[in-house]
Amino acid sequence: MKLENAPLAREELLRKLKDRSATIGILGLGYVGLPLALRFAEVGYKVAGFDIDAGKVEALNAGRSYIEHIKAENIAAARKRSRFEATSDFSGARGCDALIICVPTPLTLYREPDLSFVINTVEAIVPHLRPGQVVSLESTTYPGTTDEELRPRIEAAGLKVGADVFLCFSPEREDPGNPQYATSTIPKVCGGTTPACLQVGLALYEQVINRVVPVGSTRVAEMTKLLENIHRAVNIGLVNEMKLICDRMGIDVHEVIQAASTKPFGFVPYWPGPGLGGHCIPIDPFYLTWKARQYGMHTRFIELAGEINRAMPEWVIGKVMEALNDRGRALKGSRVLVLGIAYKKNVDDMRESPAVELMELLVRCGAQVAYSDPHVPVFPPMRQHHFDLKSVPLTPEGIASYDLVLLATNHDAFDYGLIGKHARLIVDTRGVYLKPAANVVKA
Ligand SMILES: NC(=O)c1ccc[n+]([C@@H]2O[C@H](COP(=O)([O-])OP(=O)(O)OC[C@H]3O[C@@H](n4cnc5c(N)ncnc54)[C@H](O)[C@@H]3O)[C@@H](O)[C@H]2O)c1
Q1: What is the pLDDT of residues 195-232, one digit of tens each?
Q2: Which ligand 1 atom is nearest residue 32's CA?
Q3: Atom of ligand 1 minimally distant from the CA of 139
Q4: Are 201 and 124 in contact (CB under 8 A)?
C-alpha cells in the first residue's frame, strides 16, 4: 500500500474495531490468550485462535476446555456466537484485522530471556500481514522488544508501522483463580509505536476492557509490567527473609504480617511461602536483569530477592528434617505427603511450582513421596520433572499413615480441620495453622 493511502487504512480499521465487524486473531491460546479470545467473542467479534499445540486446537474445536477455571460452556458459546475456531495454520492471519500475541516468554537454561516463541510467532504471521491490521504483543518481556524485534520484522515485509500496520504492546494482567476480577474489569495498559498505533490499540481494547490506560510508548508499557512483577518478587523476598529471622527468634511471621496489615496506610501485606512459582514472578524480573546489562546496570534488588526466594525450598526441607529428627526419625525412608502441588492456591497451574522442587528434594533425601491436590488429579508431564503419581484422597486413616504432611499450597478445598486432627506431623509453609499445636511446625 502506498503511504498516501495510510489514513484510509487506519480509518477503515478504526471503523471495524468500533462497529465490531473486525475479526480478532489471538495467537497463543493459553492462560492469557484463551480468556481474551472468549472476551472478544462475548462482545460479538468474530474470533480466530492460533496455536502450535495441535492438542489445544483440537480440544477447542470440540468445545472442550483444558484450563480448570475456563468452562467448556464458554467455549461452546464463543463457537456459536462468534464462529470461534482454532487452527495451527497461520495463513488465516491475513483475514484478521487485529493480531494479538500471547505466547510464552520463559528463561533459557542460563536464565536469559527466551524470545523464540515471540519471534517464531511474528515470523509465522509476517508473510500474511497486509495494510489495515493492528498487531499487539501481550507477552511479558524486556523494554525494547516491540521496537527492536517486532517492528523491523514487520517493516522488512514492506509495511510501514504507524501507517500500514499498527503496532502496540499491552501487557496482560490475568490473575487465574481470583474470582474478584474478570478480563474486562482489570484495567489494561497500552503503548503504541506511534501516536496512530496507540489510537488503534485503544480502539481495540476499549471494546472489551472497562478501563484502558494509555502510556507514551511501547517501552513504557513493557517496563510497567516488569515493575509490577518485580515489585511482587522483591516484596516476597523481603517477607521470606523476615520469616527466617522470625523463625530464629521464635516469632510467628504470619501473626506479625496480620498485625502490620491493620495499619490503614503505607503497608501492603505480602506472604512468605516455600518459594516462588508460576510463569511470571520467578521469571519476568530476569528479563530486566538481562536488558539492564546492555546499559551497564545491575539489578541488585532483583538478584537479592531471587537469591532469597530460590533458597526457600531447601530451607523448608531443613525444617522437615529437623521436625522428623525431633521425633527420632530420619527423612530417609519416611513417608511424606505433600499437600497442594499447584504453584498457588485454587489453580491447576504447575509451572515453576516450588512444591515440585520440594518433592524432588524429598526424593533425593530418600523419602517416599505422595501428594494430594484436588486441582491436579494426575502429576502432569513437565519438561524437567517426572513423577508417576496420582493425587491421593484425604481420609483420616490415609492422613495418619504418613510420617509427615508437608503443606506446600493452601488450596481452599482442603479440609484443614481433618488434616490437623489426623496428621502425625505437619510442616506448614503457608501459615494455615496459626495456633500452636504439638503436631505443627511452621516453615
Ligand atoms: N498466566 C498468567 O497468569 C500470565 C499473566 C500475565 C502475563 N502473562 C504472560 O503472558 C504470556 C503467555 O502466558 P500464558 O500463561 O498464557 O502461557 P501458556 O503457556 O498458558 O500459553 C501460551 C500458548 O502459546 C502457544 N504457542 C507457543 N508458541 C506459539 C507460536 N509460535 N504460535 C502460536 N502459539 C504458540 C502455546 O502452545 C500455548 O498454548 C507470557 O509472556 C506470560 O509471561 C501470563
Answers
A1: 999 999 999 999 999 999 999 999 999 999 999 999 99
A2: 16
A3: 41
A4: no
Mean of pLDDT values over 296-306 = 96
> Do residues 273 and 236 touch, judged by C-beta distance below 8 A?
yes
pLDDT at 5: 66
**How far apart are the CA of 250 and the centre of ligand 1, in A?**
42
Measured between alpha carbons, how far is 431 from 192 in angstroms, rounded to an integer?
A: 43
363-398: burial string, b at 16+ Cβ within 10 Å, e else? eebebebbbbbbbbeebeeeeeeebeeebeebeeee
Which residues does ligand 1 sit against, CB inside 6 Å?
A: 27-33, 50-53, 56, 102-105, 117, 120-121, 124, 138-140, 172, 174, 176, 279-280
pLDDT at 384: 85
Give the residue whose CA is nearest to atom 13 of ligand 1: 104
The answer to whether 207 and 194 have CB atoms below 8 angstroms apart is: no
Task: State pLDDT tens for residues 13-46.
Answer: 999 999 999 999 999 999 999 999 999 999 999 9
According to DSSP, the β-strands at 133-137 and 212-215 are unpaired
pLDDT at 2 over 60: no
pTM: 0.93
1 vs 395: CA distance, rounded Å: 68
Closest CA to 354 of 300, 438, 243, 429: 429
Rounded average pLDDT over 361-375: 98
* CA–CA distance, 55 with 52 (Å, rounded to integer): 9
Helix, strand, or coil here: 206? coil
**Best residue among 34, 66, 102 to mutate for probing ligand 1, ranked by most atoms within 8 Å of CB:** 102
- State which ligand 1 atom lies nearest to the alpha carbon of 34: 16
Tell which residue, 161, 53, 155, has the closest CA to residue 102.
Answer: 53
Q: How far is CA 135 from CA 4, 151, 204, 416, in A?
A: 21, 10, 10, 47
Q: How far is the centre of ligand 1, averaged over its atoms, from the C-alpha of 130 (Å)?
A: 25
Does residue 394 contact residue 413 with C-beta atoms inside 8 Å? no
